[in-house]
Structure formats: structure tokens, C-alpha cells
Amino acid sequence: MNEPLHVSARPPAVLLVGGLLVLLVALVTVAVSVGAVPIPLRTVWGVALERLSPGLVARDWPEGVARIVWDIRFPRALLAAVTGAGLAAVGAVLQGTTRNALADPYLFGISAGAALGAVTVITRIGDVIGIATLPLAAFLGAALSFVLVLAVSGTDEERRPDRLVLAGVAVSFMLMAATNALIFIGDHRAAHSVVFWMLGGLGLARWDNIWIAVAATAAGLVLFLAQARSLDALLLGEETAKTLGVSPGRLRLILFAGAALVSGVLVSLTGAIGFVGLMIPHVARILVGPLSSRLLVAAALMGACFLVGVDALARTLTAPQELPLGILTSAFGGAFAVWLLRARRGIA
Amino acid sequence: MTHLAVDALTWGPPGAAPVIQGLSFTVPAGVVQGIVGPNGAGKSTLLRCVYRVLRPRTGVVRLGGRDVWTLTPREAACRIAAVVQDGAAPPDLPAREVVALGRTPHRGRFARSGRRDADAIEASLAAVDAIHLAERPVARLSGGERQRIAIARALAQEPDLLVLDEPTNHLDIRHQLELAALMRRLAEGHGKTILVTLHDLALAAEACDQLALMQGGRLVAQGTPAEVLRPALLTAAFGVEAVRDDPAARPFPYRFRLASPIV
Predict the structure, then answer these.
(1) What confidence tens digit (pLDDT) does each residue in B51-74 have?
(2) Which of A12, A298, A307, B133 is least surrounded by Cβ atoms within 10 Å, i.e. has the fewest?
(3) Interface of chain A against chain B, CB under 8 Å?
(4) Which residues of A touch B74 (CB under 8 A)?
(5) Is residue A196 predicted with pLDDT exceeding 70?
(6) What's the number of CA atoms in the CB half-sphere (13 Å) around residue A55?
(7) B158 and B177 assigned to the same domain
(8) Taking 60 as the threshold, does the pLDDT of residue A5 lie above it?
(9) CA B191 from chain center: how many Å?
(10) CB B8 within 8 A of CB B185
């Protein structure tokens, strides 16, 4: 039988959220300051304050430094935070609704679909509508895969978690086959771009595109939190949830659509960043328990902290070379999972 | 006024033969109605129609005179609560949080838990004598305690009708007797109408005011336990012979009752 973790040892929610917010701000500051050109921590917020409200602080840094801080590193740190938060929240929701501990944001072939969209643009279409073409195609690919999964998994009544997971796997493989075929008959650039989708990265972050990620993640979080009560009812099982006035089929459809939107938008900007959406929700569940509203907030904040921190590492470990983010997240995630298994041996 | 009336109820999966057919019975408020019958008789299907998960093919289920399918799912959940067999709560959730989930249909989307919710949760825990278990995670509860918490969760919905599907499954003799006593208390002391399926006929006879015997999707007898648990009917329904024997001559000549009040 499962022995629970010590419930009383859980930190109070306010403390945890406050602590994570402080940690996130600190990590963003450090992430902006480190890199090929190290920048003092004081200058980081000096530049930010100056840009947000000119004249507030005296400028004692060259314009080049301000550019690096404001035009390159801040958008990147922000995208890291938003992506981490979005992926972790989506992972938590999908693990809850499918009752599958291995569910992650790319469950519905989202990353395979995004890769197909991106590869199609690179090998066949070209940047027909400018710089937005690639992310847009990636998003459309992700949306396509989600629609395919829904179509394959059948009617509302049949759309049970196990069928959905299997449908996701099947659609993933079909889309990957198509992507691989395109790469094989295409050119080398395509192969290179696929590596980007597989490993993920935050290199595309710019002020004029991260708002899409911010908006999608914020919308997703609001949607998830609005359904938190229903999600909690689902913890008691499908049948009991129905007797509590929840319609599991409808609830899943709403949440899956929200999850697909968030992960589709994120994957279109960052590629498939592994393990954040898989492991962070598990860690959050250990800290705050299985109830959804607490879990979602904790997972989102922890995901944000994790990805900001890992991206800072990715840019400094092998500087001036930048490590692909996915390598580090997967390495950390895998190592953490091993530790978790050993630490909770015989417990979970 | 909140009596349950099942009228000519028939249900079967789409395109297949009906699983239950032409069931009619009424349960007055504050009465424990037991359903007995062999495996596959359609007892759980009947219950699922009553707690509004299955929509009847024909016939109607009325609570307090109103067709339950004219209620919204949330309205129905505020009037009918069910403890079903799949109801496994997460092992690390404290009992009080499980009971709190029973408030789901009463609460708005973003509304915080209010005084009324807290009162209902405490009252439900008290009704099943589980105040002392409130902080304990589900994994550290015994089978009987878990069942009581599941019932407290249902009571937290503040329902008129409580539906229990095989609540004594996997429970030892003491917990079975405690559960029977609890049902009586909820009906008599709290005015709940209770619909319960039971396998143990002796327990059903003691715990229920009325019994209905089902077989092959139909109601074959209904009335008081004495009227329903008749040897001829049981033989027809279960295919077993009911023998009145000399208790002194049995290898194990005992019956059981609770030795002390519920702890």
C-alpha cells in the first residue's frame, strides 16, 4: 500500500509561493547578468528600470550593455520563465486528467506536429510571410496533431484517458514519419532545423514575439484554475466526479484544448523542451499535494525557476558555445527522476 | 417530501438488450431501502440510473416528485450523493480534504471555502464519527475508516438521497455492523433517504427498512425484509436452498452484533 509523504511537513502555501517568487526574481537577475559579456547585477535592474520609465535612474553604463540586457537577455529570461511555467502547468493538468504519471505537454503529438510544420516551411514553402512563418507553421502543425488525436480517439463517451494517450502516441508516430520523410528527401538545412525542434532553445526570444507566449500561458493558467474544483473532483474517480456534478468528458475536452494551445504556442517559439512538463509537476505534487489550484501555482512557479536557471547554465557551462537547452533539462530531469525513485523507494 | 420514486425504469446500452427493465418502487424519506440480488442482476445499473449517471431508456427517476434529469448536474449533486466502488482517493490527501471535495457542487469557480462549507465538512465528519481521522492521509486509514470518510464526503454534499453501492465490500464483520448502524443513524437521525445494495442477506435484513429483490434486470419482490427474504424467492433468485436449521446443531452457532458503540 502507498505510504503517504508527511503531510504536516508540507510548507504553508503562502510561504512556498512567496519563496518561489523571490527565487524567480533572483534567478532572472542572475540569468540576465551572466553570459559572454558579464554584467553587474545592479546594472541589470538599472537598465530595466531605465527602459520601463526613462529618467528614473542615472545611466552609468554604455548603450551596448543596455542593448544586451534589454533586447537580448531580458526577453530570453522572460521566455524561459513563461515557457517553464506553461509547460509545468500543462503537465500537471494532463497528468491529472489522464491519470497517467508519464503524461507531458507533448502528449498529443504536439512536438511532432510542430516539427512537421517547421520542416514543411523549411524544405517546401520557405518564409512566405516573413519571420513569423516558422512559428506559425509550427503552431498549425501542433494544432493539426491535436485535432487528429481527438478525431482518432472517438466520441465524447469513448474519449477515455487511456484511449487518448494511445491516440497521441499513434498520431505522434505518423507525424514523425512524415517529418522524417520530408527531411530525407529534403536538404541538410532541414536536418539541422529538426535538431532545434528536438532539443529546444530560447534563441528566438524577442520582445515582439514573447507576448504571444505570455498571453497563451496566462490564458491557459486562468482556464486551468477555473476548472481546478472539477479537476479535484476527478481525483476521486470518474464515476464519483459525475455524482459531484462534473462532466469528465467535457472537462477533459476543455482542458486538453487549453493544454494544446499553450504547448502549441510554446513549442512554436522554443521547440520541444523535454522533462520540464513531466518532472516539475511531480516535484510540486510532493511539496503541495494533489489538489489542483495549489499544485498548478506551485508547478508553474517551479517550472519558471527551473527553466530560467537551466538556461543560464546552458549559456555559461560551455561559453562562448551555448548548449542546447533540451540537453540540460533532460539530463537534470533524468538525474532527478533517478534520485526521486531512490529516495522514495518503497514509498511511492 | 423528498421521497424517491422509480417508475417503470428501463436501461440498456445503446443498441443492446436492456439490463434493467420496468423497475418501479418508492422509498419514503428517512427510510433505508436495500437492494439485494445475485451478481449481474442489474443492482449497480439501477443505482447508476438513480444517481443520474445513466439516462433511462424509458421510465423516470423522481426525487421529491421531480424527474432527476430535469435538474442540472450540479443541482442533482446537491440532492443526490453516491458512494461508488471505484472511489479511490489519492493516498496522500488528508481525510478532511477528501470530505471537502463533497462541497464541489455547492461552490463557485473561484469562490473560497466559506463558513458554510467548513460547517458542512465538520458535521459530516461528526456524523460518521471520524473527527479524529480528519488530518490523517487516506493511505493511513483502514478499509472501514476509508469507507466512513467516503460516506462523510457524500454527506458533505448535503444530499436528500444517499446511494451506496456495496458499501460493505471488503469490510470485516465489525465494520459491516458499524456501517449498518451508521445507515440507520443517518436515516433516523439525519432524515436521509438511503438506497443501498448489499450482498449479505442477514445484514440487509437488519440494516434496511425495506428490501427489493432483483433478478435478471427485474424486480421480483419488494417489501419489508421479512416479506422479501422468503426461502422460495431466494431459491428462485440465487439458486440456493434456504434451510432453517437448529442453531445448536451448527458447527458455528453464532450471530454477531456490535459489542460496544462505534469508536
Answers:
(1) 999 999 999 999 999 999 999 999
(2) A12
(3) 1-5, 7-8, 225-226, 229-230, 232-233, 235-240, 242-247, 289-291
(4) 245
(5) no
(6) 0
(7) yes
(8) no
(9) 14
(10) no
Q: Which residue on chain A is closest to B52 by alpha carbon?
A: A243
- Residues B139, B244 within the same domain: no
Nearest-CA residue of chain A relative to B72? Answer: A245
Boundaries of domain holding B139: 4-229
CB contact under 8 A, A240 and B102: no
Q: Are residues B150 and B258 in the same domain?
A: no
- Among A237, A244, A247, select the one facing B104 at the smallest CB separation: A244
Q: What is the model's pLDDT at position A158?
A: 59
Residue A100 domain flag: yes
Contact assignment for B135 to A7 by CB distance below 8 Å: yes
Q: Are A236 and B52 in contact (CB < 8 Å)?
A: no
**A90-111 pLDDT, tens digit each:** 999 999 888 888 888 887 888 8
Look up the domain containing A59 and give its range. 13-344
CATH value at residue A187: 1.10.3470.10
Among A4, A229, A233, beta carbon nearest to B139: A4
Task: Report the amino acid identity of residue A97.
Answer: T
Residue A136, all three cell numbers: 506559425
Here the ipTM equals: 0.90
With an 8 Å Cβ cutoff, are B81 and A235 in contact? no
Residue predicted with more confidence, B118 or A54: B118
What is the reported pTM? 0.88
Q: Is B261 exposed, middle or buried (0-12, 13-18, 19+ CB in 10 A)?
A: exposed
Tell me: the pLDDT tens digits for A284-336? 998 888 999 999 999 999 999 999 999 999 988 887 788 888 888 888 888 87
Residues in chain A within 8 Å Cβ distance of B94: 7
Q: Determine the length of chain A.
A: 348
